[in-house]
Automatic annotation (TrEMBL):
A Pfam short name: DUF2795
Organism: Streptomyces lusitanus
Lineage per the UniProt record: Bacteria, Bacillati, Actinomycetota, Actinomycetes, Kitasatosporales
Region described as Disordered: spans on this chain: 45-64
Name of this protein: DUF2795 domain-containing protein
């Protein structure tokens, strides 16, 4: 996957419960078959806990 999109992130985090720890979201993404680059980007965010999907999107993609 060359370019990651917010839709890819939403699919990867389907079924996640919030608030959620970053490690929990990485596990959900892996179990949903997320692309390795998306999993890596998620795990490299500086945020340790997310209150909802919008926070995850901002952490992964910035202010796009």
């Amino acid at each position: 996957m060359a370019d990651l999109s917010p839709i890819d992130l939403q699919k990867a985090l389907k079924g996640a419960d919030y608030p959620a720890a970053k490690d929990d979201l990485v596990s959900v993404a892996k179990s949903n078959g997320a692309d390795d680059s998306l999993v890596r980007k998620l795990s490299e965010t500086g945020t340790k806990r997310f209150d909802g999907p919008n926070e995850v999107q901002k952490a992964v993609f910035g202010n796009e």
